Q: What sequence folds into this?
């Protein structure tokens, strides 16, 4: 227990260039930290031995997609001989945590509340594991505004439904604002990973983060809807005039929490449809699956570039 | 297509005593409705044939738990001879939709945004399938306030972090309020399914719905925390003085959407810890799993009672 307390007390020393900032003095008093939703513990598992080499954490919605990404990045990094990436959260099915060398591939479910749990437990995991200079990515899907479906958007700004870059949450009955400050260097570096030879476009843009897929994104095809197509299109045009290129459901919390944790982070999503053309996802699932690899390709190039620089 | 349009135009006729209210005129214009997140369509699948006999939809967070519940209710209803319940959303891993006779057992992930998607697609599913008199339940887990862990709470009131029974969402840039009106008859009937011989208690109470597991529920053991134990306990005491018995992350959206859809619905959760005793879930997983069956037992009794009444 003493070693753990010492480790906790040394929180501020684990900084590197961009150290994980826990900013929670209360953790010093814990004799054991159960990362409940991924069924890992800083006492029952040797997190340093298991995860100490992690440099990149890639989050995405679905477990199956993040398993595929783990296999993809494993191959890209020449690690296939290690066998298929293992799911370290295999004792629970709430989230999946695959590892391929220095890369964790983590599912976050849908929406900021679901993301916020796994995000915090992963921040604690990389902290307890003693990781340094870790970079986080959200690799996801989104609805586009005036973009050809299958376009990759690197978010240079993330906003809520009122177009503010602010993640609001209620703590002890009071609403607090967490600013969603984007890491502009990382955004530029990621966007520069696009190649002229790619069979998809990569752009920078503003991402609107909604708390709902249907009404929250102005769709008219949910079970509930109190607005008409005309009002929807006026709103979509207003968004586009304000630089919004795509909409999804996690970017705001993701960027705000990265900023809060002093972790480099970026959001990179493919658009699955152009919302000016419709609301439903009618493209066949095979093509949708192929499109979902596009942001993975961009992030994989960034990871390989950084690993080459440091080797 | 004509049959579909007719079916859509007949929306208001599908009422029964408590018909599903779609309240979305826009759906009349769809030639096909892709229920994208469960990989079902009202044209490519015969939803009436597959799901027309559904009378109860039970939602819960984890897919594995909802698979177990489907097996449990299948056994309780004497349907084991039909084989293990099938997951009809098997073409996607975002959600699971198991069916056991007249009961659907559906996973909703974590948080209202995740719930809102599957809720709306299930409302459309039971509507397209022509189901009548459907009752929805959320069977979940929660943190308790001053209750013995393992107690079942039937929510007679659900509130947000500001203690208001109001689900706020942003639509087309404007915040709208959806009242979370509980069905008091269903609450009474559910609470009355408790037996003196049960090895757990069942109580009625107010459930606070938070958008986060850590700070949003006042925990001090997340990656981020800006308050102290003392402030937490003051807040917990204030909640208890206001009748709050437990906290979770979906009840508010669930009850508000049931009310909006004119569907009878109730929330029934077990408490996994007493928040006055701590924040971490330290009870062993086997006992936690056993506790998670308690609200399933209560809801199962209600379902059997209703099926017996109507047979």
A:
């Amino acid at each position: 227990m003493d070693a753990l307390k010492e480790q906790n007390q040394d929180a501020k020393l684990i900084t590197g260039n961009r150290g994980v900032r826990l900013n929670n003095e209360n953790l010093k008093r814990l004799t054991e930290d159960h990362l409940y939703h991924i069924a890992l513990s800083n006492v029952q598992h040797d997190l340093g031995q298991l995860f100490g080499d992690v440099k990149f954490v890639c989050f995405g919605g679905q477990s199956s997609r993040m398993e595929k990404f783990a296999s993809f990045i494993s191959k890209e990094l020449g690690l296939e001989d290690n066998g298929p990436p293992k799911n370290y959260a295999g004792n629970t099915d709430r989230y999946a945590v695959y590892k391929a060398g220095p890369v964790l591939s983590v599912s976050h479910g849908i929406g900021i509340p679901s993301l916020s749990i796994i995000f915090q437990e992963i921040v604690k995991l990389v902290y307890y594991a003693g990781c340094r200079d870790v970079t986080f990515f959200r690799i996801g899907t989104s609805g586009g505004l005036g973009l050809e479906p299958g376009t990759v958007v690197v978010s240079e700004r993330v906003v809520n439904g009122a177009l503010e870059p602010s993640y609001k949450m209620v703590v002890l009955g009071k609403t607090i604002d967490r600013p969603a400050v984007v890491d502009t260097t990382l955004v530029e570096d990621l966007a520069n990973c696009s190649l002229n030879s790619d069979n998809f476009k990569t752009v920078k843009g503003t991402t609107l983060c909604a708390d709902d897929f249907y009404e929250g994104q102005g769709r008219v095809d949910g079970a509930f809807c109190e607005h008409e197509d005309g009002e929807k299109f006026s709103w979509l045009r207003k968004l586009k005039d304000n630089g919004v290129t795509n909409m999804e459901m996690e970017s705001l919390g993701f960027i705000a929490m990265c900023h809060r944790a002093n972790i480099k982070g970026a959001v990179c999503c493919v658009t699955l449809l152009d919302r000016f053309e419709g609301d439903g996802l009618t493209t066949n699932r095979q093509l949708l699956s192929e499109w979902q690899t596009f942001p993975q390709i961009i992030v994989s190039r960034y990871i390989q570039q950084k690993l080459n620089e440091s080797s």
Notes: Residues 1-17 of chain A have pLDDT under 50 and may be disordered. The first helix of chain A runs from residue 2 to 9.
